[in-house]
Input
Amino acid sequence: MPPAYFSHYSGLNYLGWKIVADNGGLTGNIENGKARFLSDPFEMDDVQSPVQRLIGIHDEIRHGLGLADVTRIAIALYDAKTHRLKTFIRSGLKESPLDHYTASLDDIPSLVEVARQKRPRVVDDLEVFKASPTVHSTRLIKHGFRSSLTVPIFDHGNLFGFLFFNSDTPGCFSQVVVHQLLPYARTIALFAINEMQSIRMLHAAVKTAREITHLRDDETGGHLDRMARYSRLTAMNLAPKYGFDDEFIEYIYQFAPLHDIGKVGIPDAILLKPGRLTESEFAIMREHVDKGITIIDAMRRDFNLDNLSHLQILRNIVAFHHEAIDGSGYPKGLKGDDIPIEARIISVADVFDALTSARPYKHAWTSEAAFEFLHGAKGSRFDHDCINALEAGMNEIKDIQAQFAESPLG
Output
């Protein structure tokens, strides 16, 4: 590729950035060398989601900083287990070309190089990619984007994802503009990392609780990996009908493995019983839902996670994934659309993986047999939209099952 189209900025990788200027708008608290108060009070209770924060920063860049030509900002997260990128949040002035998009990092050599160099990269004219097009570069050009600034994000030395600034104007990202944008880029990277670290803290706390209580139920690491990805696949295929954005889909994926955290409070004699539970034993088993909500609220309080956005998605998943469409589920006996969609998604993904996984007391069902069972219970226990959405991803299901296969049972 012609070197004139590209610029890499040394010394500006994520871990080494320095905020070089206030830029008159990032904090807005200095005027003519004197302190002044903001017009609106800042409330810690005003929890904003990552996309809300990104939209606010984008508005500040365009209007406070005067960089109106920056027409799109987006983050893609990196999944180290699958070596894939997935769209997360974005702010833009027009329809996004890359909603609900995922791709192998290996299929995007230009981003592999950005990650290798650990430095921001400027492309002055995206049409340079027409010589070796990728899906994402083709879509960007088709939607009228002409230049870009790409910033790799690293968390403790590990690739976290990429931050993209795009413009409809060729050559938008001069060295002066890049230095103006980098403090904002660092802010965006920090809040994205902090958000995911809070979720990882929840996962780690639950994992520790399982180990301390010697929890040995069917929820193996492979099961949790698979059902989380089935949940994401289902949500992505539902997105056109339900209007899900990538942020909502990502939180379903992140929170799915925590759906049964309340089981840490259930006695092993009941949790691991190979046969059918008695009525009194099943009543105790059902308590894991309320115990799960109690655990979530305790972790939120004890780990100071009040600023973690979308906790209600997690609470809905834990509280309602055992509800049934016909009202026969527990604990509330909710029906149909009264059951939050995130809980309906997790219910289908969880049962599908349980059916298609081998256990000491059962053989693994084929995916076809599992879907036949789910369709048989459609309208009574499971949401038909969720079943159809998961079934539409049979190729992805095969990939997930191959990559996260359990070790053969002894």
Residues 1-5, 10-45 have pLDDT under 50 and may be disordered.
